Amino acid sequence: MYTFNIYDFYIKGGVFMHPILLCSIISLAIFMERLWSLRRKKVIPESILPKIEKFVREEKLSEAIGFCKLDNSSLSRVLLVGLKNAGTKREHLKEVIEEVGSREATYLERYIEALATIASISTLLGLLGTISGMIKIFSVISREVIVNPTTLAGGIAEALNTTAFGLVVAIPSTVFYKYLIGKVETMIVEMEEYSTHVVELLKGKEE
Protein backbone atom coordinates (compact mmCIF):
# COMPACT_ATOMS: atom_id res chain seq x y z
CA MET A 1 0.00 0.00 0.00
CA TYR A 2 1.41 3.37 -1.05
CA THR A 3 1.75 5.99 1.66
CA PHE A 4 2.17 9.59 0.62
CA ASN A 5 5.16 11.19 2.33
CA ILE A 6 5.07 14.97 2.09
CA TYR A 7 8.73 15.30 3.07
CA ASP A 8 9.86 12.95 0.30
CA PHE A 9 7.55 14.73 -2.12
CA TYR A 10 9.13 18.05 -1.21
CA ILE A 11 12.76 16.87 -1.29
CA LYS A 12 12.38 15.01 -4.59
CA GLY A 13 10.93 18.14 -6.16
CA GLY A 14 14.34 19.73 -6.19
CA VAL A 15 15.54 23.27 -5.63
CA PHE A 16 12.49 24.99 -7.14
CA MET A 17 10.31 23.69 -4.32
CA HIS A 18 11.88 26.22 -1.94
CA PRO A 19 10.72 29.41 -3.71
CA ILE A 20 7.30 27.84 -4.29
CA LEU A 21 7.05 27.15 -0.57
CA LEU A 22 8.02 30.75 0.14
CA CYS A 23 5.27 31.89 -2.23
CA SER A 24 2.73 29.79 -0.34
CA ILE A 25 3.74 31.33 3.00
CA ILE A 26 3.54 34.89 1.64
CA SER A 27 0.18 34.18 -0.02
CA LEU A 28 -1.35 32.83 3.18
CA ALA A 29 0.08 35.70 5.23
CA ILE A 30 -1.40 38.30 2.87
CA PHE A 31 -4.79 36.57 2.86
CA MET A 32 -4.96 36.41 6.67
CA GLU A 33 -3.79 40.03 7.07
CA ARG A 34 -6.36 41.28 4.57
CA LEU A 35 -9.15 39.26 6.17
CA TRP A 36 -8.33 40.93 9.48
CA SER A 37 -8.02 44.42 7.97
CA LEU A 38 -11.19 44.11 5.89
CA ARG A 39 -13.48 43.27 8.80
CA ARG A 40 -16.73 45.12 8.31
CA LYS A 41 -16.59 46.88 11.69
CA LYS A 42 -13.15 48.23 10.75
CA VAL A 43 -14.20 49.48 7.32
CA ILE A 44 -17.95 50.22 7.37
CA PRO A 45 -19.41 50.06 10.91
CA GLU A 46 -23.17 49.69 10.70
CA SER A 47 -23.81 52.14 13.53
CA ILE A 48 -21.89 55.13 12.17
CA LEU A 49 -24.17 56.39 9.39
CA PRO A 50 -27.40 56.62 11.47
CA LYS A 51 -25.53 58.57 14.17
CA ILE A 52 -23.90 60.95 11.69
CA GLU A 53 -27.24 61.47 9.94
CA LYS A 54 -28.88 62.27 13.29
CA PHE A 55 -26.16 64.78 14.19
CA VAL A 56 -26.40 66.50 10.79
CA ARG A 57 -30.19 66.75 10.88
CA GLU A 58 -29.95 68.26 14.37
CA GLU A 59 -27.23 70.65 13.11
CA LYS A 60 -24.67 69.25 15.55
CA LEU A 61 -21.71 69.22 13.18
CA SER A 62 -19.11 69.49 15.94
CA GLU A 63 -20.51 66.37 17.62
CA ALA A 64 -20.54 64.56 14.28
CA ILE A 65 -16.92 65.53 13.62
CA GLY A 66 -15.89 64.41 17.10
CA PHE A 67 -17.68 61.09 16.64
CA CYS A 68 -15.88 60.45 13.34
CA LYS A 69 -12.52 61.28 14.90
CA LEU A 70 -13.07 58.69 17.61
CA ASP A 71 -14.09 55.98 15.14
CA ASN A 72 -11.06 54.50 13.37
CA SER A 73 -12.77 53.17 10.26
CA SER A 74 -12.47 53.90 6.55
CA LEU A 75 -16.01 55.21 6.32
CA SER A 76 -15.54 57.58 9.25
CA ARG A 77 -12.43 59.08 7.63
CA VAL A 78 -14.37 59.66 4.40
CA LEU A 79 -17.32 61.22 6.23
CA LEU A 80 -15.03 63.33 8.41
CA VAL A 81 -13.63 65.30 5.49
CA GLY A 82 -17.18 65.87 4.22
CA LEU A 83 -18.30 67.20 7.61
CA LYS A 84 -15.26 69.48 7.85
CA ASN A 85 -16.17 70.96 4.48
CA ALA A 86 -19.85 71.39 5.25
CA GLY A 87 -21.22 74.63 3.86
CA THR A 88 -18.97 74.62 0.80
CA LYS A 89 -20.20 74.19 -2.75
CA ARG A 90 -21.50 70.80 -3.75
CA GLU A 91 -18.78 70.28 -6.36
CA HIS A 92 -16.01 70.99 -3.85
CA LEU A 93 -17.65 68.78 -1.25
CA LYS A 94 -17.85 65.86 -3.66
CA GLU A 95 -14.28 66.44 -4.78
CA VAL A 96 -12.73 66.30 -1.31
CA ILE A 97 -14.80 63.25 -0.35
CA GLU A 98 -13.79 61.45 -3.55
CA GLU A 99 -10.14 62.26 -2.87
CA VAL A 100 -10.23 60.71 0.60
CA GLY A 101 -12.34 57.84 -0.70
CA SER A 102 -9.71 57.12 -3.33
CA ARG A 103 -7.01 56.95 -0.65
CA GLU A 104 -9.11 54.62 1.46
CA ALA A 105 -9.79 52.40 -1.56
CA THR A 106 -6.04 52.17 -2.18
CA TYR A 107 -5.55 51.14 1.44
CA LEU A 108 -8.25 48.47 1.19
CA GLU A 109 -6.68 47.06 -1.97
CA ARG A 110 -3.18 47.00 -0.46
CA TYR A 111 -1.24 43.76 -1.07
CA ILE A 112 -4.14 42.11 -2.93
CA GLU A 113 -2.52 42.39 -6.35
CA ALA A 114 0.46 40.53 -4.90
CA LEU A 115 -1.74 37.42 -4.66
CA ALA A 116 -2.28 37.41 -8.43
CA THR A 117 1.46 37.85 -8.92
CA ILE A 118 2.21 34.97 -6.55
CA ALA A 119 -0.22 32.72 -8.43
CA SER A 120 1.58 33.46 -11.70
CA ILE A 121 5.05 33.06 -10.19
CA SER A 122 4.16 29.75 -8.53
CA THR A 123 2.88 28.36 -11.81
CA LEU A 124 6.00 29.50 -13.66
CA LEU A 125 8.30 28.08 -10.99
CA GLY A 126 6.49 24.76 -11.28
CA LEU A 127 6.98 24.86 -15.04
CA LEU A 128 10.65 25.73 -14.57
CA GLY A 129 11.02 22.75 -12.24
CA THR A 130 9.39 20.56 -14.88
CA ILE A 131 11.88 21.73 -17.49
CA SER A 132 14.75 21.13 -15.07
CA GLY A 133 13.53 17.60 -14.44
CA MET A 134 13.18 16.89 -18.16
CA ILE A 135 16.72 18.15 -18.76
CA LYS A 136 17.97 15.67 -16.17
CA ILE A 137 16.02 12.85 -17.81
CA PHE A 138 17.41 13.55 -21.27
CA SER A 139 20.87 13.97 -19.82
CA VAL A 140 20.71 10.44 -18.41
CA ILE A 141 19.35 9.09 -21.70
CA SER A 142 22.16 10.73 -23.68
CA ARG A 143 24.86 9.23 -21.45
CA GLU A 144 23.62 5.65 -21.18
CA VAL A 145 22.96 3.16 -23.96
CA ILE A 146 20.66 1.05 -21.82
CA VAL A 147 18.68 3.22 -19.45
CA ASN A 148 17.61 1.87 -16.10
CA PRO A 149 14.23 3.36 -15.17
CA THR A 150 15.43 3.99 -11.62
CA THR A 151 18.06 6.38 -12.91
CA LEU A 152 15.31 8.47 -14.46
CA ALA A 153 13.27 8.58 -11.28
CA GLY A 154 14.96 11.70 -9.93
CA GLY A 155 14.24 13.76 -13.03
CA ILE A 156 10.67 12.45 -13.30
CA ALA A 157 9.98 13.23 -9.63
CA GLU A 158 11.36 16.75 -9.99
CA ALA A 159 9.34 17.38 -13.13
CA LEU A 160 6.04 16.16 -11.66
CA ASN A 161 6.43 17.34 -8.07
CA THR A 162 7.30 20.94 -8.88
CA THR A 163 4.41 21.18 -11.33
CA ALA A 164 1.98 19.79 -8.77
CA PHE A 165 3.30 21.97 -5.94
CA GLY A 166 3.23 25.08 -8.11
CA LEU A 167 -0.43 24.48 -8.92
CA VAL A 168 -1.24 23.67 -5.30
CA VAL A 169 0.01 27.17 -4.40
CA ALA A 170 -1.28 29.00 -7.48
CA ILE A 171 -4.89 27.80 -7.31
CA PRO A 172 -5.61 28.90 -3.70
CA SER A 173 -3.75 32.17 -4.31
CA THR A 174 -6.06 32.88 -7.25
CA VAL A 175 -9.10 32.06 -5.12
CA PHE A 176 -7.79 34.35 -2.35
CA TYR A 177 -7.30 37.16 -4.87
CA LYS A 178 -10.78 36.82 -6.40
CA TYR A 179 -12.45 36.67 -2.99
CA LEU A 180 -10.63 39.69 -1.56
CA ILE A 181 -10.97 41.88 -4.65
CA GLY A 182 -14.70 41.15 -4.71
CA LYS A 183 -14.99 42.00 -1.02
CA VAL A 184 -13.12 45.27 -1.48
CA GLU A 185 -15.16 46.32 -4.52
CA THR A 186 -18.39 45.72 -2.59
CA MET A 187 -17.15 47.82 0.34
CA ILE A 188 -16.03 50.64 -1.95
CA VAL A 189 -19.46 50.78 -3.59
CA GLU A 190 -21.13 50.92 -0.16
CA MET A 191 -18.82 53.73 1.00
CA GLU A 192 -19.63 55.69 -2.16
CA GLU A 193 -23.36 55.28 -1.51
CA TYR A 194 -23.01 56.40 2.11
CA SER A 195 -20.83 59.34 1.11
CA THR A 196 -23.33 60.46 -1.52
CA HIS A 197 -26.08 60.32 1.08
CA VAL A 198 -24.10 62.51 3.48
CA VAL A 199 -23.29 64.96 0.67
CA GLU A 200 -27.03 65.31 0.03
CA LEU A 201 -27.65 65.96 3.73
CA LEU A 202 -24.92 68.56 3.98
CA LYS A 203 -26.02 70.23 0.73
CA GLY A 204 -29.55 70.37 2.08
CA LYS A 205 -28.30 72.12 5.18
CA GLU A 206 -26.34 74.59 3.06
CA GLU A 207 -29.45 75.56 1.14
Topology readout:
Layout: H1 6-12, H2 17-37, H3 40-43, H4 48-57, H5 61-70, H6 74-84, H7 90-108, H8 112-143, H9 149-206
Helix pairs in contact: 2-8, 2-9, 4-5, 4-9, 5-6, 6-7, 6-9, 7-9, 8-9
Proportion of residues in β-strands: under 5%
Tally of distinct domains = 1
What value does the average pLDDT take? Answer: 84
Q: What quaternary form is this?
A: single chain
Shape: rod-shaped
Q: What is the helix content?
A: over 70%
Summarize it.
With 207 residues, this protein is an all-alpha fold. Helix content is 83%, strand content 0%.
Description:
- It is a single chain.
- With 207 residues, this protein is mainly alpha-helical.
- It has one domain.
- It has 9 helices and no strands.
- The radius of gyration is 27 Å and the shape is rod-shaped.
- It starts with 5 loop residues before the first helix and ends with a helix.
Features:
207 residues; mainly alpha
